[in-house]
Amino acid sequence: MVRRPLGNHHLGPDTLLVTSDTTRTEHVSAPTERLRERISGARVVLWDFDGPICRLFARHRAELIARDMVDWLAARGLRGLLREEEIRSSDPHYVLRAVGGRHPNSDLVAELEERLTTEELRATFTAMPTAYADPLIRTWAAVGARLAIATNNSPLAVRRYLDGRELTGYFTPHIYGRTQRLDLLKPDPHSLRRALNAMGSAPGDALMIGDTPSDCHAATEAGVPFLGYARNAEGDERLRVAGGDVVVDSLEPVLELVAGGR
To answer: What is the 3-state secondary structure (H, E, C) of 213-257?
Structure first.
């Protein structure tokens, strides 16, 4: 087990960070017993999309999409719908959720959601695969796990990306993404529960892999064990504060355990 400080952040006593040897000078391959226990009982694996599977906005920058959404509202005299922190947000989902909370089920929300979906579809062409995600998906399926996606992104974007990586068949029909019911986006556990119900799985037989506090909160609410994925110290800190107690900075040790029979 590896416990180490990350920048100015320190792991709490109940948090496990499992690292890989992606940077030889400071990372050591260290599959641990706690990570093994976390994945060994997973008969169903629920994946968040943007983060654990790919970096959707690696080149199609999310902050520019959020700014475009704010400008689109402003051009219609609706900038006042947003608070100052929402106007400054670099997260387009945050902007969409804010408008949806004030005008639920409206044509305005439907049009704004459609604009975000269009941008997510464009982003799939330049999305960067998360290291080890593709072989982990294939290997987990090969050893008998059933896979699903529970995401706040558009299911259309998810399918387009998976099609391009020849991964769609590992998940379909269990892709549960954003609808116009924005109140049911994570951290609400709705998408996780949809997946569990459709697959006939008890929460304790599943595992959620996510990279945000909303993923962690949704898994906790649904009673699903959670495995955090953090690309950097800030991501690890956010997951730790949210309650994530097993966090990896690479999917490599997960792949090693799954391929080795866990």
So the answer is: HHHHHHHHHHCCCEEEECCCHHHHHHHHHHCCCEEECCCHHHHHH
Alpha-helix runs per DSSP H in 5-60: 33-40
* pLDDT for res 261: 75
What does pLDDT average to over the chain?
A: 88
Q: 200 Cβ partners below 8 Å, 6+ apart?
A: none
Separation CA 224–CA 241 (nearest Å):
18
Give the span between the Cα atoms of 76 and 126, in whole angstroms: 30
pLDDT at 7 (0 to 100) = 34
Name all contacts of 118-124 with Cβ < 8 Å and 24+ positions apart: 119/60, 119/65, 119/68, 119/92, 120/56, 120/153, 120/154, 120/156, 120/157, 121/154, 121/156, 121/157, 121/160, 122/60, 123/56, 123/57, 123/59, 123/60, 123/157, 124/56, 124/157, 124/160, 124/161, 124/164
Cβ atoms of 156 and 117 closer than 8 Å: yes
Read off the DSSP letter of residue 130: P
Q: What percent of the chain has pLDDT over 90?
A: 82
Place of tokens 């109940």: 14
The pTM of this model reads: 0.85
Helix (H/G/I), strand (E/B), else coil: 28: coil
Find out whether 212 and 205 touch, Cβ atoms under 8 Å. no
Distance (Å, whole) CA 226 – CA 2: 19
Rounded to the nearest angstrom, the gap between the alpha carbon of residue 235 and the centroid of all alpha carbons in its chain is: 12
Largest CA distance in the chain: 58
Residue 164, helix vs strand vs coil: helix
Comparing CA positions, the residue from 262, 225, 221 lying closest to residue 245 is 225
